[in-house]
Structures are given as structure tokens and as C-alpha cells.
Amino acid sequence: MKLVPTTIQISIFSAVAVLGFEFLAIWLILGNGSYNGFLRRPTFTGALGKHLGDNEDSGWRDRYYREVFTESASNRTTDTILTANLAELCQAITWRPNLYLNCTRVSAGLFNQVNEIKNCIRMAIDTGANLILPSSSERDSERLNNFHTGEIAWKRQFRQRWDEEHIMSHLGKACPQMKVLPSDEPPISNATHILIDPKGSPGFKEYLGHFDGTRTFRDYVDKTSSEKGTTLNSTISPVVLEIEWTLLVINPENDPTGLDWRAWTEISLLIRPTESHRRLVQKISEAESLRKDTYIGVHLRVEHDAVGKWWDDLEMQVSKNLNSIDVVAKRFREQRGDGKNPFIYVACGDKKGIERFRELAALRGYIVLDKWGVLGNDTESLSEIEKLSFDERGLYARVVILLHRRQYEKRPRTVSRN
Asked: Which segments cross the bilayer (predicted)?
């Protein structure tokens, strides 16, 4: 029996998460309307509903993509990202100046890395620890089930993909009590290292969220450290908590005040790709052939390591997507009155997968676009795309779709929250 979470948390890059039982996500770009339920407010119970108005639900959906990927984001200062709730959360914590937390095995695909980084930051806050930004690796672009876990040459990939200075600057402002050290920080001298396994907490279940205000990560760390004979409150000897599992550890929804959730969404704004990757997304988004009223966007999953486990094989995905597109395209033609199908823009990291989609779509009268095609003769950007890993190519092509404003979506059940 497959587990389905009782809570659905916001995704940095999409509410249709990486881990889905079936994957089918289709967007119809129709103009400048608001998101059509694309990123939803979580399903809270009790008093929290009174603390979250409709405006709060819709307002920051656009905010993340605007602040992270638009042109104005490049010149954003620390004063323009407001993290009042994160600051309030940090202010309420009792901090331990000689305690450090380091997530040592952030090694999932880039979509889930965002979730892992957020959990890592949140665990450090809950514990009252300083933060060493994570060690991270990425899946091999050819052998997709190889995440290079434990390979030293791949361990320092964090700075290559994420804007480390952005995290350090904004997190340092929101939580001045926390020292935030870079991912390549040399080992702390004379430190005691303790391995903390969140999955060892009684009742822990993968992918469902676990620690919250009633069952805190801090209490679990204190208990585990005490059993290992280590005190975390030393003013002399530093202690480094090494965390290996960070995916879906924290559940910020189980807080009747809503503070945990609001702080969680603010942490989202701290995590963004490097500047060169953000500018590449801008260039693709501004391509003439991607006018906002002329295409349907499809995110195609071709990772063979999870076919049958999290999503269908390529042929089945293409068939399901095209069947749904047929319905939407009919409505589109009726509204336009010109009998022409909209273009289809496919976000995918694999050229062969896109070509197969293009072949089958052509049989139904559709023209398929991709990031390589829309860039035309922009050799500089095309060269940048070729340097991207498999995950990066799919991720940034997908973000292009998400940047556009009104979307039609057929959402599957999900087991991942980002």
C-alpha cells in the first residue's frame, strides 16, 4: 500500500512534485490572469485558517518566481526580501553558540534538493545551531540512478548550482544569532562530530513529514546526543551535528498559529539558482516564440530509474498528455476562432524524450517547441544549455512555464512537498 501524505506543502518550483504516483502536468498559457490554483494553501485545521486570509494565499505564489527569476531579481538587496516571520521564529529560539549543524548528503535531483536545503535550515533553527551550508552532489546525467553519494569529487557541488551568498546574506539578516558558514568551510578545529539520523525518531515515516512544534527536532537531537554522552551547550568545545537524511523531515503545517508555515515560505525565498542560470531562464522566457497566449506547457518525466514507481513510461506519459491537450486545444481553438492549435512547449532534460513527444504530437497536428529551438541562433545561451546537467536542463525549462501567469493544470496525487 502506497503512503499518501495528509498535508500538501508548497513547492519551490511546482506544486506537482518530483515524486508522483502518476505524472501529468499541463499548463495552458492564456494571458495575465492569476494562477489557477497552481500553488495551493495547505489544508490546515483549527485556528490556523483564521490567520491565513485569501490574499496571503495568492500573493506570494507570484512572488517567488518574480523575485528569483525575473530581471529585477538580479539587483535585489537584502532589504527587499522581507522575512519577518522567519526573524520572529529565530528570536524565540534559545541559541547555542558552539553548536553547528551540517547536512552532509544532499544528493537528490535538484527539485528535491530545494526541499532538503529548506529542511536543513529549519533543523538548524529548531536546534539553535549555527549552520554549515550543505555538502551536495547531483545525479549523473547518463546514469540517472547514480547520485554520486559519498564520492568526494562530487561532494562540493552546492556552490555550482545555488546562490550561496544569497542564502548567507538573507539568512544572516533574519537570524543574526546564527553563524552561517559556506559549504566549503574548512573543518572546525577540535570539534566533536555527532551523526544524527532523523529516521531513528520513533514513528518516523519517509516522505510524510515528522518533526513539528509538538515533536521537535531539537528534543530528538538533545536526547540522541545525551545517549552518546555529549553535551550541546558547551562554551568551550564545538560540536557538529552531521545530518544525512533531510528530505521531508520537518512538517511546518502542524502549528495552529501559522508561524511555522509563514517562516517556511520565507525560507523558500532564500534559495535560488546561480545568477548565470537565472539569466538563462530569463532569455528562454523572453523568446519570441513563447508569447504568453500561444502555447501549452508540458513537463515530461523521462528518468528511467523511477519509471513505474513514481510515473509512467515515456509512451504512456505522451499519450496521457496529448489526450488532455486535445481537450484544452479544442477549447483554445473555439476561443480564438481561427482553427489553429496552440504550440506545445516541452520542459524536459532529455532530447530523445522531446523528439519522441514531437513525433507523436505531430500526428495530431501539433508543433512542439523546446528550449533549444526557442533560443534560435543565440549561440551563447545554447552553449550554456549544453553545459547543464540533465536535472538542470529539465528544471530551468520547467521554470519557464511557471513564470507565465495563468495555467491550466491536471494534478496527480503527490508524495513530495518542497
From this structure: 12-30
Q: Read off the pLDDT band of 18 (50, 70, 90).
A: very low
Q: What is the pLDDT of residues 256-286, one digit of tens each?
A: 999 999 999 899 889 988 999 888 888 888 8
Which three three-digit cell numbers place residue 160? 555550482
C-alpha separations of 221 from 18, 92, 122, 128, 369 in Å:
29, 18, 14, 11, 50
The residue extents of the domains of the chain are 1-80+273-418, 82-268
pTM: 0.77
CA distance readout (Å), 303 to 142, 145, 192, 308: 10, 8, 40, 10
Which is it for the CA torsion 410, 413, 415, 418, positive or negative? positive
Which three cell numbers mark 267?
Answer: 525560507
- How far apart CA 114 and CA 399 sit, in angstroms, is 14
3-class DSSP assignment, residue 376: coil
Please write the tens of the pLDDT for every residue from 60-74.
455 666 677 776 555
Instruction: Determine the Cα–Cα distance for residues 303 and 58; give it in Å rounded to an integer.
Output: 32
φ/ψ bin of 128: left (φ > 0), alpha (ψ from -120 to 50), beta (otherwise)? left
Of the candidates 315, 316, 319, the residue with the CA atom closest to the CA atom of residue 364: 319
- CA separation for the pair 284, 396 (Å, rounded): 9
pLDDT at 350 over 70: yes
Q: What is the pLDDT of residue 182?
A: 94
Question: Can you tell me whether residue 107 is helix, strand or coil?
Answer: coil
Backbone angles phi, psi at 131, to 5 degrees: -120, 125
In angstroms, the CA 101 to CA 116 distance is: 14
| Phi/psi at 295 (5° precision) | -145, 155
Q: How far, in Å, CA of 182 to CA of 167, rounded?
A: 10
